[in-house]
Amino acid sequence: MNTKPIIATGRTAEIIEYDNEHVLKLFRPDLPEHLVEMEFNNSKAVYETGVHCPEPIEMREYGGRKGILYTRISGSTMLQTLFQNPSVLTEEARKFAAIHIDIHKRSVEKVPAQKERLEEQIKHAPLMTAQEKDQVAERLRKLRNGDQLCHGDFHPDNIIHGESTDWVIDWMTATRGNPAGDVARTYLMLKFGQVAEEMPQDVQAMVAQVRNRILEIYLEEYLNQSSVTMDDIRDWTLPLAAARLGEWIPKEEKKQLLEWIRSHL
């Protein structure tokens, strides 16, 4: 049983205090061990590119659960900053795009290939028919490859504002590939992502409004500061949406994604 203080909780893991210089990311007991190993290896590869991310030290078991020991960083997430001070939304959304562009400027080898991972996820995606999966996979195969670093889960809660730098966390889904696919993934999360159902309706509405505004500014800034076009992003949204169906996301979000997928086949 975990007796150390919990710093943060996510869908797949808890961050617990380990010592003054380290935290332990402790994964859910039902998460396959190969995914923990994937995050550790990806994080090492990303750290070596110079991206500002916590350094992974070693894999470690604690309380019967698999974990990764990371160097400790401190600060508030971009999402927390937005809720604490909504007036900085435009500035934060532009920074969100700038950080993503900086990630995409880096080439990387020691992480999985983007299209290979997506094709495997689409193959095992729930709710879709075999014919629908084949259609999506065929579109994926026609898309341009790349060797740029892609985060795979880039959203405001995965950016931590430190005292002197911004940190990017959670690299389990990192790949080498086409940045347009990574932007498409962020687009889908901001467009379809669900908030907790227990939140009051007015709070849910406010979150949706903030999320839509972030998406609008982020896309405008990213397109203005990179060579990626909106058509490039649109081409990637279908396979990314299909792949997302197999993730631990709310049923309502899966329902909306499935409807969107079928309307775009």
From TrEMBL:
The keyword Lyase does not apply. Residues 17-191 form the Aminoglycoside phosphotransferase domain. The keyword Glycosyltransferase does not apply. Transmembrane segments: none annotated. Keywords: Transferase. One of its GO terms (molecular function) is transferase activity. SUPFAM superfamilies: Protein kinase-like (PK-like). Signal peptide: none annotated. This is Phosphotransferase. It comes from Cohnella terricola.
